Amino acid sequence: MEMRQLLQVMEVYKAHSIGKAAENLFVSQPTLTVSIRRLEDELGEPLFVRSRSGTEATEFGRRFVQYIAPLCEQFHMLDTVVNDIKRRSNKELTLSVPPSKVFCKIYGALLKKHRGSAVNSRLKECFTHAALEDIENGRSEIAVVSVTSGEKPLFSHILKVKGIEYTELFCASPVVGVRRGHPLSGRDSLTLDDLRSYPRLIYSEGTDSAMFEDALDMSGSMDRLYVNSRAALEELVLETDAFTVTTLPLEAHVERGENTVRLIPLDGTDVQVHVGWIRRAGAMLGQLAEEYVKTLEEMLIK
Q1: 3-state class percentages of the chain: helix first, strand second, coil last, to nearest 5
Q2: Smallest Cα–Cα separation from 99: which of 261, 256, 245?
Q3: Under a CB-based contact definition with an 8 Å cutoff, are residues 159 and 183 in contact?
Q4: Is the pLDDT of residue 208 over 50?
Q5: Phi-psi bin for 19: left (phi > 0), alpha (psi -120 to 50), beta?
Q6: Is 248 within 8 Å of 175 (Cβ atoms)?
Q7: Where in the chain are the domains?
Q8: What is the distance, to the nearest Å, from the Cα of residue 189 to the centroid of all Cα atoms in its chain?
């Protein structure tokens, strides 16, 4: 009994046709017929019978297929396993992260550490929806995601459905970012009412809701300025009286000079943001991904 024969049995069972199965397996029909017959001789029982509707499994054949199906499925997963092993042994890293300097800072330090060792890497800034798709479709090995407390139950359900594993880094309250010299920059804390007369800067991908966009009740005449560039958002915060909403544990790890942003706690809201990293469930991480996650945890888990 050979693995090749088991895969052939599964294909005939699914196709209900020797001819169609042979076509799918890229072998001739006589070759496939002989191979199946040899297996039947070895087993001492027929696996298939011909009928007007095609080739159907016998009772023995159906029971046999039930036993070999998990084995065949594992065999088909070997390509994924091999790619994971290659990634672990090669200097490759693909990741999706929210728009925050801390993730780029870690990424840059990692590239500097492995400079000259043929690193092949890609970093993409995006929100949670796009990050989930990147992990699901294999475009990113790992991703950092952030969801508000109200989104967490649906997010957990989506993770389960998509077969994605989540590890939380921290949970924190939102903070307001304003330029030093802003009329509110001297305050120790702020409320939503304090912000209503100032424009709000929102980082948005257009197709994906921005962080805190729906969670915070900021209705009214407030100007909303949407940008899809982190550099543009930071520049506009520094040059105008606009504010942005972020999370302190992310931004606190990035050095800031005298003329940069001041972060002020936002009071009067029960909104929390959960930040963690994701990967395909059971996937092995490559060397660079493991180092990136380790640095994340060292910086952000307190």
Answers
A1: 45, 25, 30
A2: 245
A3: no
A4: no
A5: alpha
A6: yes
A7: 3-76, 82-171+274-300, 174-271
A8: 34
Question: Does the pLDDT at position 242 exceed 70?
Answer: yes
Structure tokens at 242: 């606009």
pLDDT in tens, 149-161: 888 999 999 999 9
Question: What are the distances in angstroms from CA 287 to CA 63, 85, 141, 220, 300?
Answer: 43, 10, 11, 49, 20
What is the per-residue pLDDT for 207?
A: 46
Residues in the chain: 302
Report CA Rg, the chain: 27
Do 82-171+274-300 and 174-271 come out as alike in CATH topology?
yes
DSSP state of 299: H
**What are the residues whose beta carbons fall under 8 Å from the beta carbon of 51, sequence distance 6 or more?**
none
Which one of 1.10.1040.10, 1.10.10.10, 1.10.10.60, 1.10.3720.10 gives the CATH number of domain 3-76?
1.10.10.10
For 275, the 3-state DSSP assignment is strand
Greater pLDDT, 19 or 88: 19
Structure tokens at 4: 């090749």
Map tokens 């027929």 to a residue. Answer: 46
DSSP string covering 198-257, please? Answer: S-EEEE--SSSPPTTTTTS---SS--EEEES-HHHHHHHHHHSS-BEEEEHHHHTTS---
Structure tokens, 243:
């504010």
Q: What are phi and psi of 129, to 5 degrees?
A: -55, -50
Helix (H, G, I), strand (E, B) or coil at 145: strand
| pTM, full prediction | 0.64
Side chain identity at residue 114, one-letter code: H
Q: Domain spanning 174-271 has what CATH number?
A: 3.40.190.10
> What's the topology of domain 82-171+274-300?
D-Maltodextrin-Binding Protein; domain 2 (3.40.190)
Side-by-side strand order, sheet with 92-97: 120-125, 92-97, 142-148, 273-280, 164-172
